[in-house]
Structure formats: C-alpha cells, structure tokens
Amino acid sequence: MWVITLIVGVWFVAAEGILLWFTFRYRKKDGVRAAYVPGKSFRQTGWILIPCVAILVCDLAIDAFGERVWKTIKEKVPPAQLQIGVEGRQWAWTFTHPGKDGILGSPDDIVIPNEIHVPVGENVAFTLGAADCLHSFWVPELRLKQDAVPGRHIQGWFRATRPGSYGVLCAELCGVAHGLMRGTLYVDTEADYERWLDSRIAAQPASQAAAFQAAPTPAPQPAPKTGGKS
Ligand SMILES: [Cu+2]
Predict the structure, then answer these.
(1) 179 C-alpha vs ligand 1 centroid, how far in Å?
(2) 126-160, pLDDT tens digit by residue?
(3) Model-level pTM?
(4) DSSP strand pairing (115-119 vs 183-188)
(5) Ligand 1 centre distance from Cα of residue 90 (Å)
(6) Which ranges in the chain belong to alpha helices (H)?
C-alpha cells in the first residue's frame, strides 16, 4: 500500500505544483494580451499528442503485463472447498452458505443478510447475482471486486489468508442508500467456522426448510465464463 501511495503521491504533488506554478506564472497582467494558439504546427499540437500516446502506451503495457494474472485470478475458478451464493439488492447483501451437507441450493442452506463466514486459507467459490440493478461485490482488503449484473450469475473465487473481519462494500452507485450497503466478511479458523455453522443451524427456524421446499431458490448455474473487467 505504501508503494502505491508513494508512486501516486509523487505524481499528484508534481502535477498540482506545475498547475499552481502555471496559474501564477501566466495570470492576467495589465497590458499583456493572451496569445491565440491555432495548433497548426506539430510543435504546438505535440503538447497534446505526445502525452496522449505516452498514456496509451502505458495503458497497453499494463494490460499486456497483467494479462497472465487476470487470466489466473478472473477467468479460472480453482477447485473450492466452499461454494457460497452472493446477491446484491438495494441496499443489502444476501449471503447463502451451504449447511452441513456442503451443497449449495439444498434445503439446509443458511441465508443471512450482510454476514459472510469462510474458513481461513481455503478456496471459496461464489456465485454472484443482482436482484434489481448493478451492484459491485467489493472486499478491499482481499483486492476482490466484481460487478453484479441483473440476469447473470457470475462465478468468482477468493482465498482469505488471515483470520479477522473485513468490510464488504458495494462499489457501484446503486441508489440513495448505496453508501449504507455494507456487510462483514468473517474469516474464521476451521474450528470457529464449524462452531458458527452449528450455531446457525441450531438457530434456523424449522419453517425455513419447509418454505425452501415450497419455493426452492434456483441452484446457481455454473457459468462458462466469469465476469468481465470492472
Ligand atoms: Cu451500491
């Protein structure tokens, strides 16, 4: 994080400094008329064209160097120990955990708003959906961010390596209470996860299983491709 802050910070201070210096250096003065620059020579247009090309080259280089990482992280879902369902709606996250059978989309599923539990160090695959409009499933500490698109079930995965609790945010402006759309990801030890699962199963009203059987939620469809860049 400090490396990024340093790289961005240096350029920020330099750019703001140059802007301020130009503002004072070329401010309005009595008796001095502003020059009209028609941009007919390359010497003039080069001030715009050269930076544009430089930025484009940097962008393409970042894309090229990042391609392998993108493919590894985004386009392949490795074998996962846990499969969960994530759904965004105005303005909350709904997380579906498989119950003791470990199968998502079965009657013992546990559906909780704004709270997600995963065991530490294990691959967790998720199926992401949106009930109403665009949302974006974002866990900043995990560098995890994926848009949720109505009508699509997007596959993704993550592996949390340190126990603790982390904020789950929405990174897509989705309405007036967008900023309040927050959840918590609890990364538990294996024992803590099992304990939490047992406590949830014990707390689960018997009516939920019956309701599930009356109106089963569709099981997540394995999508051939994961989501696009966002
Ligand atoms: Cu939002």
Answers:
(1) 7
(2) 999 999 999 999 999 999 999 999 999 999 999 99
(3) 0.69
(4) parallel
(5) 7
(6) 2-25, 42-70, 190-203, 206-214
